[in-house]
């Protein structure tokens, strides 16, 4: 039997983002309640009875926006902690918070990794998992060494108390995204290049703020609030990505 069902779209603003829902009205839904689900792929689905009025549906969704957003971030984070296991075509690699399909091809010249239209292409003369993994690791390290200093320079310029771009080291860190020494040297986790840009900016701002406030006191958080009003949400997102820092 074909289910009597209609499907419409509903878009609601939430902070600086928009939440898009698919509203499914169904005769089979005898209960009068409206149910909201965040699917494993991140889609938001609202199940409603056939006769439910638009304003009622909108209100039901509006009341649960914070919950929906939290679930969506969880889903997104889950998708970002994936990493290749066998280093073969079809697996997923994550760069700057975006998923790329891995494509392993035979190299004509030397080994090479490059991004092309949604793919992270690894050209290698020897397609063993160790070689592919090594090439990818080198590529991520090179991207980190290119991207993070540029971003640090941009953030430094925006902050009055930063008189000169601080010395930076980029390395593997197993427990932290970044740190700032008492001498003002900033260290960043090479794994940062896998997380979304907004998360990178949060870490940079956090460490640069330590140049002025060494401790996490009220003055420190006042500066974060002023320069990145959404920092708590971004930090929560980054906390959910802790595994990424450990991925090599
Ligand atoms: Zn800190």
Automatic annotation (TrEMBL):
InterPro entries: UTP_pyrophosphatase-like, YgjP-like_metallopeptidase
Annotated ranges, domain YgjP-like metallopeptidase: 32-239
Gene Ontology molecular-function annotations: hydrolase activity
A Pfam family the protein falls into: YgjP-like
Coiled coil stretches, renumbered: none
Keyword hit for Isomerase: no
Assigned keywords, A-Z: Hydrolase
Protein name (Swiss-Prot/TrEMBL): Metal-dependent hydrolase
Organism per entry: Noviluteimonas caseinilytica
Native organism taxonomy: Bacteria, Pseudomonadati, Pseudomonadota, Gammaproteobacteria, Lysobacterales
